[in-house]
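quick one
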Amino acid sequence: MSTSTWTEPEPSPLLYLLGQLKDADSERGVECPGVLPPASDPSLVARALAAKEKLGDKVFILGHHYQRDEVIQFADSTGDSFKLAKDAAAKPEADYIVFCGVHFMAESADILTSDEQKVILPDLAAGCSMADMAALDQVEKCWSELENIGIAKSTVPVVYMNSTAAIKAFTGRNGGTVCTSSNAERSMTWALEKGERILFLPDQHLGRNTAVLQMGLSLSDCVLYDPLKPKGGLTDIELMNAKVILWKGHCSVHGRFTLDSVNDVRAKVPGVNVLVHPECVHEVVKAADQIGSTESIIKTIKAAPSGSAWAVGTELNLVRRLATENPDKKIMFLDKTICYCSTMNRIDLPHLVSSLENLVSGKVVNQIKVDPDTAKWAKVALDQMLALPAK
Ligand code: 13P
Ligand code: SF4
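structure w/ iron/sulfur cluster:
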């Protein structure tokens, strides 16, 4: 008989993706405590309504445009990540902000609300894979490489809203700004007036599309920094000469749209307008008729003439809602394959009901709390964005 002792095997990394482990600093999510009502429970809508009514003004529910219809129907306010952060800050009377969105959005709401208010993410595993592509230790390593070659002082970090609070705090500490997809051009222009180059993170596509298609820079002004390689896989000269150092991150949803999808829809639907989010790859954005942040996609479709046809390259929950709300227009999804944001979709009615019913019984579950020092510096970068001159 063997005498070796049994040791527990290392958990599979897959469990992180499934939200089964505790890794509270990651966007990938952690286990969700408590028992959820089954999705098949026919009383879920009534339960959500009853809990919301009992909580009254104590609760304010925010719903990002990419959320499911079953959840968005209970939102007191809907919007993109920027609008929702501002809406949360404008509700000081609400004890609880229930954020139906993803982890980084709930963090921003916590940073912008008072210490007394509690921000709740109904499923802690609702993270953003793009935000996870820039970890603090990687960004600090990159910054010390820039220091070693003497260019950190002349480099201004511009961080996309889709990033962890720790990365926003890094940006605040180093004189940079947060940006969203609706003000990336303004933020990057400000940064280039302040310094000689930008470190743009984590979405390479938003950075490249804004630099080249909106600011008139060339593709050769941009270099791609791979955090898994020393100095990002670049030479000192490449880093020094760059106007924009793009972090090698992307959105797993918007990155799936291809030039073929654009060509296919144009061949099949004559006169179609192709409207895409700036997180799509450069060749797709270049081939589109219009580029728009989440809010501007919604405004464009609302204002479009009756009978016009639109192929929209963004998250599927939003495109389906646009189609339902604009029956006089032909609204279609740009890609042939289904393309939900799987982490946004984690927040479903059972998770919302569970969060609200827990609050009714005095229990706060799944609170998102950013530590005070991180919150202080992240707010510096967020406030810098809010202070940017209007266009
Ligand atoms: P918004 O900033 O438009 O809300 O976009 C968030 C997002 O996750 C886009 O993929
Ligand atoms: Fe993140 Fe992309 Fe989902 Fe937006 S759509 S939350 S960027 S993974």
